[in-house]
Amino acid sequence: MLSLKTKIIRQKNHKTMAHSVIEATDKNFDELIASDKPVLVDFWAEWCGPCRMVAPVVEELSNDYQGKATVAKLDVDTNPEVSFKYSIRSIPTLMIFKNGQMVDKLVGFTPKNVLAKKLEAQL
Predict the structure, then answer these.
(1) What are the boundaries of each domain within the chain?
(2) Homologous superfamily of 21-120 in CATH?
(3) What is the pLDDT of residues 80-93, one digit of tens each?
(4) 15 near 53, Cβ under 8 Å?
(5) Which residues are catalytic?
(6) Which run of H or E residues covers position 71?
């Protein structure tokens, strides 16, 4: 069971995301992705327009897959170590991990149905 505490992330528009979205950081990332359940990580930044577009999709997926998958967001500006390790050059980048390994990666705005199919494939 994941021992991380779920944090509410507030974006610039001050909308609160679902409680089931975890704030990923340089410090908790390795523990977060070690799960045997799929872990969807949204690499984002506050200033990124497409990131704001994908945020509601990520929030909906966190609700839809609660208990089946973990959904997290990592701010690339405040977490440079993980961003560097995974060569994040464009945002939003969405990665799916399972058992500590990246199993899928999408760059740019991705529709909910595409992300859902990618998550379903890892369940």
Answers:
(1) 21-120
(2) Glutaredoxin (3.40.30.10)
(3) 999 999 999 999 99
(4) no
(5) 48, 51
(6) strand 70-75
